[in-house]
Amino acid sequence: MSVKILIIDDERIIIDSCFRILKSGDYQLDAVQDGFEGLRKIDENHYDVVILDIMMPKIDGLEVLRRIREGYPDIDVIMITGLSQIETAVKSMKLGAFDYLPKPFDPDELKLVVSRALERRRLLWENLNLKTEVGAKYRFDNIIGTSPQMQSVFRLVAKCAPTNSTVMLTGESGTGKELIARAIHYNSLRKDKPFIAVDCNALSESLLESELFGHVKGAFTGAVTNKQGMLEIAEGGTLFLDEIGNISLATQAKLLRVVQEREFKAVGGTKTQAANFRLITATNKNLKAMVADGRFREDLFYRINIFPIAIPPLRDRRDDIPALAFHFLRAFNEEVGKNVTEFSEGAMGVLMNYDWPGNVRELENTVQRAVILATDSVIRAAHLVNIDGTSPWSAVDIPQTGDELKQVKKLAREKSVENIEKLFVLDALKRNAWNATKSAEETGMQRANFQALMKKYNIRLREPDCDSDESGAP
To answer: What is the pLDDT along the chain (474 residues), one digit of tens a residue?
Structure first.
């Protein structure tokens, strides 16, 4: 569709000049020599850009501009002005004009300002479409979960979303806490403002403070410029603090002040800044127990636990597994360019009977790998080798060809190695009171390599008095 431009100027020579300059572009050009006639044309047609003279009889350009901005705020208006009217042109910018050109204007100047206006429109439309797509993605009916447990979660989300209430999401790693947080945001009054997520587990104490509050130049070694913090970037929107149970007591104290007073200071700064945001937190820890142990501030806990929502683990809502599995199957089919359409009976049985310590995230990773491994349109149990405790094949999925037999044997060897590696890491951690550094030293491994194995098998550090294996999604 070509761009439509309307020229409103009482001088025919200016109109002819604009036509001559812009005719090389893919534009549909219209022109009138009267402001009232211009407004009528705008009422009858859709225009992308209006080129408008300031000084005209009957009605001047500023009044035409006001009426355009009131009735059609999506139209970009470029003002044309004489050299003696620059102050008026500047006033037009305050009224919402995109730009102005002084007479006589150079052809390249006119082409450039029209091009800039159209580029701005393109970016605005792309941003609007992106927001529409993102908002649709996080509608409640687009989040998979028909089980009674998830329907209960959706009811709570629907109640709290349109409010400004602080929400705390609890649940194991991989249950989809960030997905629920985004659903709350995109169904709230703040949906057109930023959603800012901060992973409190991924940053050291000093880096987390800088990430949250920002810092001023010279605040610490390496602070060579001022930096905005996430509190400032989240202005008017939602701040999501994931794994809030991992922040230090010192940072908790500073966060408490922000939550109470709705103001903060950048690291190394003296200026107090107002903070307007909605707070959503998430944790996979028992914060009440941490309060009792003195590891989490009681006053902060009660400030963030205003509207708690518990996300159930996948093993407690097994009815959702088939729908989730097929959702991921379709997504990864498109991503890798395959045509895998179904799960065999044996494969679905494995998925349904597995306990999913890594929850939905582990299921997603499992299906992704299975799609890559599949040799035809069916995912079989042999393709689900990264699920702990499952056989690499079942009676339903006995290899049918020589190629399938080779694949099953290869996957079985990989599975055997993976089991040994995981047991190796877990045993070393247990012997060393779940201290990763000591475990690496004792086994003669580099700490980074030892931690890479921990990450590979979703093994998290925990309290040394716990006996059960701890593994979850990364």
So the answer is: 578 999 999 999 999 999 999 988 788 899 999 999 999 999 888 899 999 998 888 898 899 999 998 888 888 999 988 766 667 777 888 888 888 888 888 888 899 899 888 888 877 776 555 554 545 555 655 688 888 899 899 989 989 999 999 999 999 999 999 999 999 998 898 988 999 999 998 777 878 888 899 888 887 777 778 888 899 999 999 999 999 999 999 999 999 999 999 999 888 888 889 999 999 999 999 999 999 999 999 999 999 999 999 999 999 999 999 999 999 999 898 888 888 999 988 889 889 989 899 999 999 999 999 998 888 889 988 888 767 544 444 444 556 677 766 766 676 666 667 777 888 888 888 888 888 888 999 999 998 888 888 888 778 776 544 443 433 333
**What is the distance, to the nearest Å, from the Cα of residue 97 to the centroid of all Cα atoms in its chain?**
33
Residue 104: cis peptide before it, omega within 30 degrees of 0:
yes
Is-contact 182 282, C-beta < 8 A?
Answer: no
- The span from the CA of 456 to the CA of 261, in Å, is 42
Q: 264 forms bridges with which residues in the sheet?
A: 273
pTM of the model: 0.58
* Residues 6+ positions from 125 with CB-CB distance below 8 Å: none
Place of tokens 């022109």: 31
How, if at all, do strands 272-274 and 263-265 pair?
A: antiparallel
Pick the CATH number of 140-312 from 1.10.10.10, 3.40.50.720, 3.40.50.300, 3.40.1190.20: 3.40.50.300
Surface-to-core class of residue 452, CB atoms within 10 Å of its CB (0-12 exposed, 13-18 middle, 19+ buried): exposed
Owner of token pair 């190695």: 417
Residue 7: beta bridge partners?
31, 51
DSSP strand pairing (167-170 vs 263-265): unpaired
Q: Tokens representing 376?
A: 């035809």
Phi, psi dihedral angles at 207 (to 5 degrees) = -70, -35
Residue 441's CB is within 10 A of a number of other CB atoms, namely 15
CA 65, distance to chain mean position in Å, is 37
- Which overall architecture, per CATH, does domain 3-132 show? 3-Layer(aba) Sandwich (3.40)
| 316-351+365-398 and 3-132 share a CATH fold | no
